[in-house]
Amino acid sequence: MNAKSVESMRRRARRAAGILAVCYLVATGFACSTNVTEPSGATRIDYGMPARLGRQVAPGPSTPWRAPDLRGYTSVLKAAEPSSIDLQKRYDLVELIDLAQRLNPETRVAWEAARQAAIGVGLVESAYFPVLTLTALGGYQSEPFPAPKEVAPSGYFRVNVLQVFPTLHLRWLLLDFGRRGNALDAAQERLLAANLGFNRKHQEIVLRVQRAFFGLTGLRAKIAVAQSAVEAARAVRESAEAQLRQGLTTLPQVALARQQEAQPL
């Protein structure tokens, strides 16, 4: 296999990965399928894409379409921006939710889907307005003609012609038997679905952040209680040993204090 064949294979693999990326970032509800034929004996190039994403194709006519799982794709995205998280700062719950909503790739995908749906509504509404077009065609022509010396000492005279043709077109569709109304209703429903999906994605991220935050808070409280219990058991054991040295207690009581200190929490 020569270098030209290897480079051709790499271009095909990169093209297939780019098509898959575009298909999964489209959140308006369209599915796509890509068939890439690799030459026999070719070495498969791994670009970090999950295998299940590479095998997913568009459903058949009788199969209901299901939205793709964006978490599998966003997991292979590399951070293109520097992290805005300060490791030396102690964040509260509100700040953590704000960071998660701003930095999570899923919220950006949902926001772009909602923005595209809003643009679609604007495009449909623009069909109700008239279209005014102004065009202008201009030209300049200079042509010499021979003439007698008695008329023109140079032996010719020149004719210059300058022409401009402006045109104004006005087009306004007044009756379309409900076609634009149906398109507008469909675009508004798509916008509503995109907005609901955007809100749901934010709610999911808020719930995940809250679970992690309160789980960490509860774990820290358990650690603090366990540390206090260990320190109390250590103080009891040291007191019992000091009393034993003074002859004020017995060895079994000291052994019991040591046992309580060694017991797991």
Q: Residue-averaged pLDDT, rounded?
A: 76
Tally the helices: what do you get? 7
Largest sheet: 2 strands, antiparallel
Gap between N and C termini, in Å?
A: 65 Å
Overall shape: it is elongated
Order of helices and strands: HHHHHEEHH
Strand order of the largest sheet: 1-2
Strand segment count:
2
Low-pLDDT stretches are: 1-6, 20-47
Structural class: alpha+beta
Helix content: 40-55%
Q: How much beta, percentage-wise?
A: 5-15%
* Rg (CA only): 38 Å
Describe what this molecule looks like in 3D.
The chain has 265 residues and is an alpha+beta fold. Among the domains are: 1-78, no CATH class; 133-171, no CATH class; 219-262. Helix content is 54%, strand content 12%. The chain has 7 helices and 2 strands. A two-stranded antiparallel ribbon has the order 1-2. Helix 4 crosses helix 6 (179-245), helix 5 (105-125) runs antiparallel to helix 6 (179-245) and helix 6 (179-245) runs antiparallel to helix 7. The chain is elongated, with a radius of gyration of 38 Å. 5% of the residues are buried.
